Amino acid sequence: MVNMKRLLIPLFSILISLNSYGIELDSLFGITLNGNAEKYISSNYINSNKQKNHETLDGFYNLDLTDKIKTKNPYFSIYSLTLDTNNNIHSIEGYEYYSDINRCLEFLETLSSSLESKYNFDFEYEETFYPNGVRYENLSRPSSSSIFVTQCNEEDKESHLMIIYLETEELADARTEFYESGL
């Protein structure tokens, strides 16, 4: 009986862990989070086009790969990555502009529902109001080290941007550090 308990406890822990995160989500648009960007695009392109990430203090870079992406998505027309100094991928992002916030929110709801069903997780919904706009956000943690977000941003009632991104906890922490520093 004691041996059976020793077997059941680790098995039960594994089942809880799998159930907590559903299907592991570790890539978007055919690109894997935490992988090296040089697997997908040349180091010459990366070195010539990456720019300092303005929402972190140091060590992260943005890279537009709209013209380089192979797996396009019908919801997004602009694609980018956030890399560290070793060209490891810390965020995979897709963007699309809409002329109307209601259209953006409609697509956001359709996309988010589809993703919840496919990956067996629930998004947490939040609205954040800023002086010039509103962010409508669905957030999930598909693994213990990543954050997955779909959102619509409205600025000055003129710009409506739908965003999807999968990012590392490390990048999220670096962004929080930047904003808490007051810069």
Descriptive overview:
- It is a single chain.
- With 183 residues, the protein is α+β, with helices and mostly antiparallel strands.
- Helix content is 32%, strand content 36%.
- It has 4 helices and 10 strands, in the order αββαββββαββββα.
- The strands form 2 sheets. Strands 3-4-5-6-10-9-8-7 form an 8-stranded antiparallel beta sheet. A two-stranded antiparallel ribbon has the order 1-2.
- The N terminus is likely disordered.
Identify the notable features of this structure and list them briefly.
single chain, 183 residues, alpha+beta, eight-stranded antiparallel sheet, two-stranded antiparallel sheet, 4 helices, globular, disordered N terminus
Task: Please provide a brief summary of the model.
The chain is of the alpha+beta class and 183 residues long. It is built from 4 helices and 10 strands.
Instruction: Identify the overall geometry.
Output: globular
Count of DSSP helices? 4
Rg over alpha carbons: 19 Å
Unreliable residue stretches? 1-22
Query: How big a fraction of the residues is strand?
Result: 35-45%
Largest sheet: 8 strands, antiparallel
Mean pLDDT: 87
Derived structural class: alpha+beta
Distance between the termini: 60 Å
How many β-strand stretches? 10
> What is the topology, as strand order, of the major beta sheet?
3-4-5-6-10-9-8-7
